[in-house]
């Protein structure tokens, strides 16, 4: 099951518990000082206030990403930066507010819910292994078998896709010169999701849908039943499908409205799973946001960017006058208080930004270096690494939260 976290919300997979070693408390004073010097510990705005003010940030751990150690460390670092095992560990270091925890489901086949797979024994020995190089999640690990141990004297490739790290971006598929990689897609079970929501330790649900039809969406929504009442937020994540985007949103809202007792949010998935590729990846999500923010016939709900978001997203929103600006005369607010999550006429046009691949990349390279050099599991055991990771997280999140980061 996939989770994301922050006011914040985190998408974090539901995982078996891992016993982490206790942290070295006395070495964490530098981290406390850094967080306190930025005043982050004293910021007590709720996730809903963040959405209303346009400074909501969501960390997407990845709907299919299930490496519990990385998720825990990412959550810890981003919670300290203003974004569960990891969240609680962060709150033991510095008393920061608890972010919401969000899980992700899909109503049909979806890019975010798939895993790459191949049989390494089928790979030619002389392949230069471009799949391994291109994978942004270090989810492919291959090595040539020792010829002395080879069956029949012919060495084969060993290893393959580390399933728990693969988040389905698909970049390995076109680079394989021998067409050896396929994908396995899956759909989350509505009954299992309902059961999880009833445990009351999840704050928000993100539904990934194609934005092209509502049949599967209705079936999932009906399947979730009154478990929806346990949530504070329902997010619908969908790609830009052009002129039909608004009509599909309205159709989905009509399906949700009778059972919706919490806030709702539209996640505009501009260019899915691409934020780490480069500066221009954020363009689609901004274009999508500009169009929807101007649409007076869209249904109620906060708007939040995702898909291609990176360090350039805030600048793009500012250029279009959408960064933390208020929607004064929005038709969606014409009757003031909604029976659902009450939005006000002066709430931000864009509630916030979700960061996925880019957020994982900037902190992930520090986690990789820590794990390869020190074989540590918990990042707080190495305050130097934690400080470096926190600086990276703050450089990204701080632009939305408007922290004054010392240079
Ligand atoms: S789909 Fe993406 S994350 Fe998965 S193995 Fe291929 S490149 Fe890596
Ligand atoms: S690129 Fe294709 S053939 Fe080469 S190692 Fe990767 S999966 Fe195997």
From TrEMBL:
Keywords: 4Fe-4S, Iron, Iron-sulfur, Metal-binding. Gene3D superfamilies: 3.30.70.20. The keyword Kinase does not apply. Signal peptide: none annotated. The keyword rRNA processing does not apply. This is Uncharacterized protein LOC115739045 isoform X2. InterPro entries: 4Fe4S_Fe-S-bd (IPR017896), 4Fe4S_Fe_S_CS (IPR017900), Fe-S-bd_prot_LdpA_C (IPR021039), LdpA_Fe-S-bd (IPR057431), PSI_iron-sulfur_center (IPR050157). Residues 114-145, 157-186 form the 4Fe-4S ferredoxin-type domain. Coiled coil: none annotated.
